[in-house]
Amino acid sequence: MTKLEITNLAVEVDGKRILNNVNLTVESGEVVAIMGPNGSGKTTLFLTIAGHPRYRVVNGDIRLDGESIVNLYPEERVQKGILLALQTPTPVPEVRLSMLITAMLNKKMGKHITDPPSPQTLAQLTKLTTELGLKPEHLGRGVHAGFSGGESKRAEMLQLLMYKPKVAMLDEPDSGLDVDGIAVIGKSIAKLAQEGTAILVTTHHAEILHYVKPTKVIVMNKGEVVHQGGEEVVKTIENMGYEKFFRDVLKITQ
Predict the structure, then answer these.
(1) Helix, strand, coil shares of the chain as percentages rounded to 5?
(2) The pTM is what?
(3) What pLDDT, on the 0 to 100 scale, is given for residue 126?
(4) Which band of pLDDT confidence, cut at 50, 70 and 90, is reported for residue 254?
């Protein structure tokens, strides 16, 4: 059973406090949705968990299965089983998508990163590529090089489904997608959760949550967790919007 615990977390970037006193927990098979307006700290939280060097933890702790990961390098956190799917991934034209996925799996299994994939791995990769609406030629292209926004989202999802991390963080996976794309990504997130991955997902508009039901919903504002609840929170925010939700429900003055 995987458990990611964030306790009293405070984070600074270039000397400026961005997160303050953040607490949350996610376990195997859970889907924790993190909502909030622009600038509320959602992406900062994910980058901090992933170990981005600009994001300095000044208080609190991040623990995976009881072990603090605050002082681990990003690559060490990946090896522990934490993966981040970015809202806008950086293209890496020099590395083929299939090569990246093979290297990730080989590293996970303790093999040399250039070892060829097994026939079973290739079959699974081909199957998932098709299910996600990508074409076989995407596997031979540079990672996110010339990909549309929707193709990049699907490629990120492909990496997650192949790697099967302990914890998957998805930063606004529904942004820029059409209805069909949201359905594909939403169902894939649900599949990951069913297979035991602990899911953290940020969203502004909650379309993705129509396909994957959150175990709990965290609402952030100005770098702090201001509310926690169930699926009803999503519906309330959709109906009211953030400004009215903060003012009338939480009694927070913006």
Answers:
(1) 40, 30, 30
(2) 0.95
(3) 96
(4) low
